């Protein structure tokens, strides 16, 4: 699961892939308000837009769901469909003013041809995770979002390179907004 911002800071876009299906949704609910007090809210369900794609002779469904006008606070969410839900993850929607500090993780050039080459990315992620103050009181990365400046893959047509990136990125994609730009190596050959 990858989450990112929409046009407004209170919008989140969720993207994930699954086996071929004609169903899919994101379910989420706020569990803490902006002040950190526990709240009990009902799950809301937002259906995903679905696109069946052929990736290296393997058909899969790409899901995209947009959730707008979220109130500030801590949320839990899951993606999928009945009988096939992802693990429950958490994310925070923050409110900002002109004096707000914004903390960003900036990464780039994870590219590699093999899993061994992606171990460098794994090492970088683990060094960040082990820094004091990396996680907030909720156990989430203590950052507002993650920007990846591209060259995530060495050859974007190789599915396994993307799998290695996401394998190690973990909470950098699913717990804080993950914004990417396309590097020259991230272009898919037609």
Task: Note down, in words, how this protein is organized.
The chain is an alpha+beta fold and 190 residues long. It is built from three helices and twelve strands; from the N terminus they run E-E-E-E-E-E-E-E-E-E-H-E-H-H-E. The strands form three sheets. Strands 3, 4, 7, 8 and 9 form a five-stranded antiparallel beta sheet that branches. It has a four-stranded antiparallel beta sheet with strand order 1-2-6-5, with no helix packed on it. The chain has a three-stranded parallel beta sheet with strand order 10-11-12. A hairpin with a 6-residue loop joins strand 1 (2-5) and strand 2. The chain is globular, with a radius of gyration of 17 Å.
Topology:
Elements: E1 2-5, E2 12-18, E3 25-33, E4 44-47, E5 49-54, E6 59-67, E7 73-81, E8 84-85, E9 89-93, E10 104-107, H1 115-129, E11 145-148, H2 159-169, H3 171-174, E12 178-180
Parallel strand pairs: 10-11, 11-12
Antiparallel strand pairs: 1-2, 2-6, 3-4, 3-7, 5-6, 7-8, 7-9
């Amino acid at each position: 699961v990858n989450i990112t911002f929409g046009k407004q800071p209170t919008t989140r876009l969720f993207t994930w892939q699954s086996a071929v299906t004609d169903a899919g949704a994101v379910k989420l609910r706020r569990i803490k308000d902006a002040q950190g007090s526990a709240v009990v809210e009902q799950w809301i369900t937002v259906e995903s837009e679905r696109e069946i794609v052929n990736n290296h002779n393997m058909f899969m469904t790409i899901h995209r769901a947009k959730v707008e006008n979220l109130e500030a606070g801590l949320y839990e969410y899951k993606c999928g469909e009945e009988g096939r839900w992802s693990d429950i993850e958490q994310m925070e929607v923050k409110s900002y003013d002109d004096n707000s500090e914004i903390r960003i993780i900036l990464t780039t050039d994870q590219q590699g041809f093999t899993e061994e080459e992606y171990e460098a990315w794994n090492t970088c992620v683990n060094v960040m995770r082990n820094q004091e103050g990396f996680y907030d009181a909720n156990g989430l990365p203590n950052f507002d979002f993650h920007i990846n400046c591209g060259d995530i893959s060495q050859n974007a047509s190789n599915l396994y390179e993307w799998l290695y990136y996401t394998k190690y990125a973990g909470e950098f994609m699913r717990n804080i907004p993950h914004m990417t730009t396309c590097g020259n190596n991230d272009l898919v050959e037609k």
